[in-house]
Every structure is written in structure tokens, then in C-alpha cells.
Design a protein that fits this description.
This protein is an all-beta fold. It folds into four domains: about 450 residues, Integrin alpha, N-terminal (Methylamine Dehydrogenase, Chain H, 7 Propeller); about 160 residues, Immunoglobulin-like; about 110 residues, Immunoglobulin-like; about 200 residues, Sandwich (Immunoglobulin-like). It is about 0% helix and about 40% strand. The chain has three helices and 70 strands. The strands form 18 sheets. A seven-stranded mixed sheet has the order 46-47-56-54-49-52-51, with no helix packed on it. A five-stranded mixed sheet has the order 1-22-21-20-19, with no helix packed on it. A five-stranded mixed sheet has the order 2-26-25-24-23. A hairpin with a 6-residue loop joins strand 9 and strand 10. It starts with a strand and ends with a strand. About 45% of the residues are buried. Belongs to the integrin alpha chain family. It is a single-pass type I membrane protein.
Length: about 1000
């Protein structure tokens, strides 16, 4: 056995939700459905088949005689006596009634000896009860229903049919084939007589009939899926159903089954689905699904049956891509590209993602008959919809030469069916029609789409119809296909659809217009003079032409008509077509809106025609079957046309504008390294970025320059000379966008972008600018964004000046002790110290502390020294930014002395007009705290030395732009008892900032 394993590789995922609008109309008529309803809870519609007898019985006037809707109801009551809920097959005629289905005789033809009555008319038989070796209750007759096609046989199965004995019950499964007239033909019990000693590890629970298919090949075959043999590894069994006993194959063929030979593992469920087609040659082969194999599911591909080759060869395998997706749960074969080779659709209804539920994989056959060589398309449905639970070949629904398919999603709402059309390139991934249960007339059955059958023209109008089952509602629905009228559409003249010059006003029809305009004609004709629908009467068509907004664009760049007030983006009207008239046209005038920037991408138009006709009257049960031929539909592939009108472009012969943009930029600052500069805060009023843009290629349309900058910089504008050449606007607080040309032809452009740095904070240590350019043309250069960096330097030039008033103090008079002093003027002469701090910039100082030391006490041998300079009041600070002095406890007027009114004159203003010197403070001096300082010895007449104690400090926030100086005033007194004469001079204090 030669086996080839093909793992699934899927490059593109199509989500149906995005492609399909809420309701997509095509030619399956949802307003006139034929509805058949079974008994409650019998799963009527679990399996269905369209069926048609070629030679109709003559004793009836119905034109639909011999056309049946076959419906399986696996929990229904069978006609066979002594059975309970063993399942049934129903045949339903083409009528408007919902309850006129008739049960087909399936069971009860086996006599007590186990022999079946063959080819007898059922009316002449008395049905037999089940034999003693059978269990028919709960056998699920009707779980599988298949028709061979027009004039072919029918397959019906009961996969839970059981064979019993005194000490065993084996679940073998059972199938019948019926003639085209639905008479009994043959029975198939493929596991009968096979080993059961190991029960489920042998053939004890075959469950034959879980799936099945009939072929219409030269040697007609039946394939029966049996997922149970050998611990549910599974298999398919193939028999000939030819009526020519002499030439037919008389062997039951099967896929490899035993542990040694099987291509699958335990519990793979091979045979859960099966289909047939010419996958490997013109002869029919098979595909069988094993939805639990390998966790993801697999499909086995089997070539044609060959006499003497048993078990059959498994030539290749297709593997699922997602765990528990049940890849292979459903299968269908169809020639979707018209190459006479069967293509394969594989359902994985439990596939899941955040946005999808259920998937169908489409394998297109190759000229070498290699299904597993092609990468499949993957179609997905809505979450939890079980899209792909059922798949059916529809035949050629729109008469274009390619077979079409239907896919069920029974749990999307109440259920939905998606219709896809074939084409020479394979399956068209946008559904041509989405049929939802909620949109049906008459009924809205739950689980609509659980089963599907198609490919037969049930109403004899030349178009195949679709049958849909909804087992949970015990309902089957037939949707008849409406005739399709072929329509040919044109847009002319072709030269008017290209090279629209956006700089040229007017057009040939309106040369004096103030806007760019152009004209064209839209035309249509009914194919073959209307013979596809009879061509005996005129048609009324609704015409609609829309510009750009149909694709989701909010605004269109153009408007229709000569008026300038409403500016509609679409035009809509009704048009008449008569058989003798032929081509019908409409001239359109289109104007381009002023200030349109996008003049490179073409303007896209959507032209659509639809038939205007009366709504069909609702079906009334019992009345004559309505004809859908009265409600034809236009061929949607021609009735809807999308075309483009192109602007004149300065591009190459390939109509692709291949620009090559290059950006060079630098900061107008002091450079410190490559692409790096230095900004001294406060020194410049503006930060300027100089940019040069080159286009080394073809014209760049809608070209723009983008510059991102720190949020602390605010955009001012461009240079004066560039204002008329460029349009630059802040997009947000950190991005500036500039239009640099539409088009920007080959060449060079320069501009300056100016920014205000005043709002930069002390936390900004580096500025980063990113500069880039792009356009709607194809940029072949693909330059990376240019990054410019500037280190931020903060520098402040501080100076301080001090003044004492009076500068000299003379001591004299009687000396009093500390205890005798009550008033401040008794202490001694008053002295006012004034210190002024200046910030000459260029940057602000957020926090500044000025430390001032003065002779407070004279140290002696006692803990408390003797007073030298006695502080009357707490020092004051004069500054716009505010400030305060911080001192030790008890240093301001510790004796609580009072001032006598009129005892002393006030001091004059001591403000200094300018700093005498400039001192840069780039470091901080650490101050000793709470210690007696001895900076300088002072000796009196008696030779005694005096010391100084640290006392007063303050801090203040200084800004260059909101002050000129800071004034600190401290009022002190010289204690006469300690010093006879002291000359006070300015001493530089210690600062920190």
C-alpha cells in the first residue's frame, strides 16, 4: 500500500461575516418555498435527497409526477409491524401542501428465513415483523438518504440496526437500495459474517450506513461508511449496484481495517463521511472522512475500485489543521473549475477562532490528478454556527459551465445556507447567496441547513434546485431556482475613462465649468435578445451608478450631474428594455470636487442593474404550485460591474508611480556629534529644524513630511519664505504634518520648522525629533525615519551683593546688664543688613538656598555665650516667586524686648540697582549644623577672642524672566557691653542651588 500524507497548509483565511451582507439575493427563490413537515420529534429532515423518475407513471395529470423530495426521519414510526421508532423514509410530492408526504416501504420484506422479497410491488406485500435475530427498535432508518440522480437508485440506511442472539447483540448497521420508483432493490449488511469474537475490537459494532454515496459511473457503485470496526478505526465498504449480474463486480471491497493495515488509529471514525468523484482518473474514486484521527481529523483518498485489489489502496491523506475541528466530518465532490476533474470540499464544523465557527476546505484538483498537491482555500462561518456541517453539489446553478456548491451553517441563528459559485479560477469566495431561515416565507425552521441536497431540476424549468433539511423543526424545504436573464453591460468610450487632468477645468460637454469634469455612457443589452426568458415582453430595470461610497468610503471625490448644489455621489433611475430596441444607454456627467488631494488612485464606480417586478403572492396550501419563471433574475456577474476612471499621472509606462523619497534634516543648534546637538535652555527663543526632501524617482502624489517632537516644544510655524510653498499643521501635540507637493516631482525641496522651547521642564534631559516622508505613490527607496537628538543643558548665572546700614557703628555711654534692659534701643545701635541675589540666566533656577552667617554670640566657658549681634525681627524676603527664612529656635528677640515709639528713625531704602560682580555657583558647600563656628577671631582691648554661630538661612525659587533681583533684609543690634567699636563689612555668604 502506498500512502502519501499531505498536511494542511493554509495561507489565507476568508471570514464570511466580512464578505457577506445580511441578506444576499441570487436565484434561489426564498419567497416561494415548498415546505414539508413531519411528526413532532421524529427528526424529519435529518437526511434528505432530491429524486426524479425518468419514466413517469402515466395515470396522472401532474407534470411533476415522479419528482420527489425524499426525507429521512430516523426516529419515526416505520410501517413494519412490531417496531417502535425504528425510523422511516418519506417521499413528498411537488405540491403546496405541507403534510402530504407518503412513507416509503423499506423494512418488513424479509421473511422468517431471512430471505428478502425482491422487485415486488409494495402494494402486493404483507410486511413482516422483525426476525428473532434482529432489533429494529431505534435502528435510525433514514439516517442516510442518497439518490443516484435522475432515473437512478436510492440509498437509505439504519446505522443502529442490531443483530442479536442468545448471548450477544451486535450493532452492524444496515442499508437498502431502492429502484428509481422507490421499490425495494437490495439490502447491504457489509459486516455480516465477519469476526466478532473481540466485539468492538473486531466487527461487533460496525455502524454501517452512517454515511453513504451512490455513483453514476459506468459500473455504478455504492460506498457505505462504517466508522465502528476495530475499535472505531472505521472503514468504507464498496459494492456494485449494477443490474447486470454477469458483468458486475461481485466482491465487497473495503479500505484497510485491521490494526496492522489501517491508515488510522483507534477512534478515528473513518467512514463518518464518504463521497465519490474522478479524483485520480476518469474512473470514480472515493474520499472518506475520519474526523477524529490524529486529533485534528483526516480524509483518506482512494482511487478507483480494481478487481483483485482488496483492501483498496489509500493513496493519499489530507490532514486538518486544528485540534477537535472534526476535519472530514462532511465531504462533497464537485467540478468547480470546469476541468472535468472532481474537486473536493472538506467540512470541519467544529473549527473555531475568535471570529469564526466552522470551516470548509476547498481542494482543487490539478491536471495531474493530484488533489493533495494543492493548497486549499479555507472558508469560515460565524462563531458557533457549525459552518460546514453539511455540503452539497448544486450542479450549474447559474448556467455558466461551472458547478456550484451549498454549505450549511445550521446553528447560525435558526440556520443558514451559503451558496458559492464555481469559476475557471476555482470557487468564488464571496457567497453568491446567503439564505437564512429567518428570511424564508411560510416557515423559519430551527437547524435550517442541517442537511442539503441539490443538482436536480425539480420544477423542470432548466435550473437545478436546492433542498434543505431542518431536523429540529421536523421540516424539509425546497428552494426553486429562478431563471437567469443574461445581461451584457458596457461603459464607453474607453478613452474617457483615463487621463483625467485634475488641473484642467471643464470637459467636452461643459467646457466653461469651474470644475474638472468628464463624461461617459453606461449601456446594457439583454443577451440573445431575451430568448433565455422568452423575450416576448419588455423589461423594466432599476439602474444605479455609485461613485466610491459603495465600498465604505465616507465621501466621494466626485459628484454626478450638472448642478452644483446637492452634489450626489450616485444616480438612480428606471429604464425600459424592449426586444426590438437592443442596446440601451445613459450618459453621465461627473465632476471632480475642488481641493481633491488624492489624484493618483483611480475613482471607482459601481454600476448595477436589477429587475423591477411584482412581488409574488404568498403560497396558500392546496393551491397550484407557483411558477418561479414569472420572477426571473439578472445574471449578477454581469448585472453588477465595477470599473475605474484614472487621473492623468506623471508616471512610467506601467502606470505605477515609483517615487524615491529621501529626507535630510539637522537642528539649528550647536553640534556635539553626528545627528546630535546641544540646546542651552533659555539661550534661544526658537528651536529650528532644517529639512531637505529629495525625490529621486517619478512623481510622488499626496507627498507629506511628518515630524514628531517632544511635547514640551510647541510648534510655531515654518519660515516666512516657505509659508506659500508648504502647508504644515500640527496633527496633535507631538506631530507636525506638512504637505510637500501633489505631485512632488523629481527634485529637491527645503523648509524650516520652528518650535518654542519655553515650556520645556527641568525633567527634559534630551530632545528627540523623528522626520519621515511618504506619499501614495510606490516608494522604492523605503528610507527609515531620520532621528535627531539634542542634549538639554540648563545653565544659570547667579550673583549676590550685600550692604549694611550703617556701615560703621560707634559704641559709647553707660553699659547695662542683660537683666536691666527692657527696650530694644537700650541694647545698642541698630544695623540693617540687605542682601540682593541676581539671576542673569540664561535658564531659570527652580530652587535656591542662601545661607547667611553672622556674629550672633561670643563664646565663653558657659553653655550660653554673650550677645554680640542681637536680632530684633525675623529677616524678610522680597521676591515675585516668594520665599522665607528658616532660623533656629530662640534666635529672634530671645529677650522679648519691646520697641519704644519715636526712639529711632526708619532706615532708608537699600535696594541695589545692579549686581557689582558676577559669581557662578556650580557647586554647593556643605554647612556644619548646630555647632559653634570659629571662622575668624576678633580681639578686644583686653585681648579676649570672639566666635560666630550659624543662624539664618532661606530658600527661594528664582526665574530669569519674572524677576531682576531678590532682596533679603535682616535687622540686628550691636550689644554695647561686648564691643566698644566694630567695623562691619560685607562678607560673602554660602549659597546652594
Amino acid at each position: 500500500m502506498t500512502t502519501m500524507l499531505c498536511s494542511l497548509v493554509w495561507p489565507v483565511s476568508l471570514l464570511l461575516l466580512a464578505a457577506a451582507p445580511p441578506a444576499v439575493p441570487f436565484n434561489l427563490e426564498t419567497r416561494l418555498p415548498l415546505v414539508k413537515v413531519g411528526a413532532d420529534g421524529v427528526y424529519f429532515g435529518f437526511s434528505i435527497a432530491e429524486h426524479q423518475v425518468v419514466e413517469a407513471v402515466t395515470n396522472t395529470s401532474s407534470v411533476y409526477n415522479g419528482t420527489w423530495m425524499l426525507v429521512g426521519a430516523p426516529l419515526d414510526q416505520n410501517l413494519q409491524p412490531n417496531t417502535s421508532k425504528s425510523g422511516a423514509l418519506w417521499k413528498c410530492p411537488m405540491t403546496t401542501l405541507t403534510d402530504d408526504c407518503v412513507q416509503v416501504v423499506t423494512d418488513g420484506l424479509r421473511n422468517i428465513k431471512g430471505v428478502y422479497h425482491l422487485k415486488k410491488h409494495i402494494e402486493s406485500l404483507n410486511l413482516m415483523p422483525p426476525g428473532n435475530d434482529e432489533i429494529k427498535d431505534g435502528q435510525w432508518m433514514g439516517v442516510t438518504v442518497r439518490s443516484q440522480g435522475r432515473g437512478g437508485k436510492v440509498l437509505v440506511c439504519a446505522h443502529r440496526y442490531m443483530n442479536k442472539g442468545a448471548d450477544f447483540q451486535w450493532g452492524r448497521g444496515l442499508c437498502y437500495t431502492l429502484t428509481q420508483y422507490l421499490d425495494f432493490d437490495k439490502y447491504y449488511d457489509p459486516c455480516k459474517g465477519r469476526p466478532v469474537a473481540r466485539a468492538h475490537e473486531d466487527y461487533g459494532y460496525c455502524q454501517a450506513g452512517t454515511s453513504g454515496v451512490l455513483t453514476d459511473s459506468e459500473e455504478p457503485l455504492v460506498a457505505i461508511g462504517s466508522p465502528g470496526p476495530y475499535t472505531w478505526r472505521g472503514a468504507i465498504f464498496v459494492n456494485s449496484i449494477s443490474d447486470d449480474y454477469l458483468t458486475k463486480l461481485k466482491v465487497t471491497f473495503h479500505t484497510p481495517i485491521t490494526e496492522k493495515d489501517s491508515p488510522v488509529d483507534k477512534y478515528a471514525y473513518l467512514g463518518m463521511s464518504v463521497t465519490a468523484g474522478n479524483f485520480y482518473s476518469e474512473k470514480v474514486g472515493f474520499a472518506a472522512g475520519a474526523p477524529r484521527d490524529n486529533g485534528t481529523g483526516r480524509v483518506m483518498l482512494v482511487p478507483e475500485v480494481r478487481d483483485g485489489v482488496n483492501p483498496m489502496e489509500v493513496r493519499a491523506q489530507l490532514s486538518g489543521e486544528q485540534f477537535a475541528s472534526s476535519f472530514g466530518y462532511e465531504l462533497a465532490a464537485a467540478d468547480i473549475n470546469g476541468d472535468k476533474r472532481s474537486d473536493l470540499l472538506v467540512g470541519a464544523p467544529f473549527y473555531y477562532s475568535r471570529d469564526a465557527g466552522g470551516a470548509v476546505y476547498v481542494y482543487v484538483n490539478t491536471p495531474e490528478y493530484c488533489l493533495h498537491c494543492s493548497k486549499p482555500q479555507r472558508l469560515t462561518g460565524k462563531p458557533e454556527s457549525r459552518f460546514g456541517f453539511s455540503i452539497a453539489r448544486l450542479g450549474d446553478l447559474n448556467q455558466d459551465g461551472f458547478e456550484d456548491v451549498a454549505i450549511g451553517a445550521p446553528y447560525e441563528g435558526k440556520g443558514a445556507v451559503y451558496v458559492y459559485l464555481g469559476s475557471d479560477k476555482g470557487l468564488i469566495t464571496d457567497p453568491a447567496q446567503v439564505i437564512r431561515a429567518e428570511a424564508l416565507a411560510r416557515v423559519q425552521p430551527a437547524t435550517f441547513g442541517y442537511s442539503l441536497s441539490g443538482g436536480i431540476d425539480m420544477d423542470l424549468n432548466g435550473y437545478p434546485d436546492l433542498m434543505v433539511g431542518a431536523y429540529d423543526a421536523d421540516t424539509a424545504v425546497l428552494l426553486m431556482a429562478r431563471p437567469i436573464i443574461g445581461i451584457l453591460t458596457y461603459v464607453r468610450p474607453e478613452q474617457n475613462l483615463k487621463n483625467i487632468d485634475p488641473l484642467k477645468k471643464g470637459c467636452s460637454k461643459y467646457p466653461n465649468r469651474d470644475y474638472t469634469c468628464f463624461t461617459f455612457e453606461t449601456c446594457f443589452d439583454i443577451e440573445s435578445g431575451g430568448r433565455s426568458y422568452g423575450g416576448k415582453h419588455e423589461l423594466t430595470l432599476k439602474y444605479r451608478l455609485e461613485a466610491e461610497t459603495f465600498s465604505g468610503r465616507k465621501f466621494s471625490r466626485v459628484w454626478f450631474g450638472a448642478a452644483d448644489d446637492e452634489r450626489p455621489s450616485f444616480v438612480e433611475k428606471n429604464m425600459k428594455w424592449k426586444p426590438a430596441r437592443g442596446i440601451t444607454c445613459s450618459e453621465e456627467v461627473v465632476s471632480v470636487k475642488e481641493n481633491t488631494r488624492d489624484i493618483q488612485s483611480p475613482i471607482v464606480f459601481k454600476l448595477s442593474y436589477s429587475l423591477i417586478q411584482e412581488e409574488p403572492e404568498a403560497i396558500i396550501a392546496g393551491e397550484e404550485l407557483p411558477s418561479v419563471d414569472r420572477y426571473p433574475i439578472l445574471n449578477q456577474q454581469e448585472a453588477v460591474k465595477v470599473f475605474q476612471v484614472a487621473f492623468q499621472k506623471d508616471c512610467g509606462d506601467n502606470e505605477v508611480c515609483e517615487s524615491n523619497l529621501e529626507v535630510q534634516a539637522e537642528l539649528h543648534l550647536k553640534p556635539v556629534a553626528r545627528q546630535q546637538w546641544e540646546l542651552l535652555l533659555g539661550e534661544l527663543e526658537e528651536v529650528v529644524v532644517n529639512v531637505t526632501i529629495y525625490n529621486h524617482g517619478e512623481s510622488a502624489y499626496e507627498s507629506q513630511l511628518f515630524l514628531t517632537h517632544p511635547s514640551g516644544l510647541s510648534y510655531i510655524g515654518t519660515g516666512i519664505e516657505e509659508k506659500s510653498l508648504f502647508s504644515c499643521k500640527p496633527f496633535n501635540s507631538t506631530l507636525v504634518a506638512c504637505s510637500i507637493g501633489n505631485p512632488f516631482k523629481k527634485g529637491r525641496k527645503q523648509l524650516r520648522l520652528r518650535f518654542d522651547p519655553k515650556e520645556l521642564s527641568d525633567r527634559d534631559l534630551q530632545l528627540e525629533f523623528t522626520v519621515s516622508a511618504n506619499s501614495t505613490s510606490e516608494d522604492i527607496g523605503q528610507q527609515s525615519p531620520l532621528v535627531l537628538r539634542a542634549n538639554v543643558v540648563k545653565k544659570a548665572e547667579l550673583s549676590i551683593k550685600g550692604l549694611a546700614r550703617p556701615e560703621q557703628v560707634f559704641y559709647g555711654g553707660a553699659v547695662k546688664g542683660e537683666s536691666a534692659i527692657r527696650f530694644r534701643d537700650e541694647v545698642g545701635t541698630r544695623v540693617l543688613h540687605t542682601y540682593q541675589v541676581f539671576n542673569s540666566g540664561p535658564w531659570k533656577v527652580n530652587q535656591l538656598e542662601v545661607h547667611i552667617d553672622w556674629p550672633y554670640q561670643v563664646a565663653n566657658t558657659k553653655p550660653q555665650g554673650k550677645w554680640l549681634l542681637y536680632l530684633d525681627e525675623k529677616p524678610t524676603v522680597e521676591s515675585i516667586g516668594g520665599g522665607e527664612c528658616r532660623m533656629g529656635y530662640g534666635q529672634v528677640n530671645p529677650l522679648n524686648l519691646t520697641a519704644r515709639a519715636g526712639a529711632e528713625d526708619p532706615f532708608d531704602n537699600l535696594i541695589l540697582e545692579s549686581p557689582p560682580e558676577t559669581i557662578l555657583f556650580n557647586s554647593r558647600r556643605k554647612r556644619d549644623t548646630e555647632a559653634v563656628l570659629r571662622p575668624e577671631a576678633i580681639t578686644d582691648k583686653e585681648g579676649r577672642r570672639r566666635s560666630v554661630i550659624s543662624s539664618v538661612s532661606f530658600k527661594n525659587k528664582l526665574k530669569k524672566n519674572d524677576f531682576k533681583m531678590l532682596i533679603l533684609s535682616a535687622e540686628l543690634r550691636c550689644w554695647h557691653r561686648q564691643v566698644l567699636h566694630v567695623c562691619l563689612h560685607h562678607q560673602k555668604p554660602a549659597q546652594k542651588h
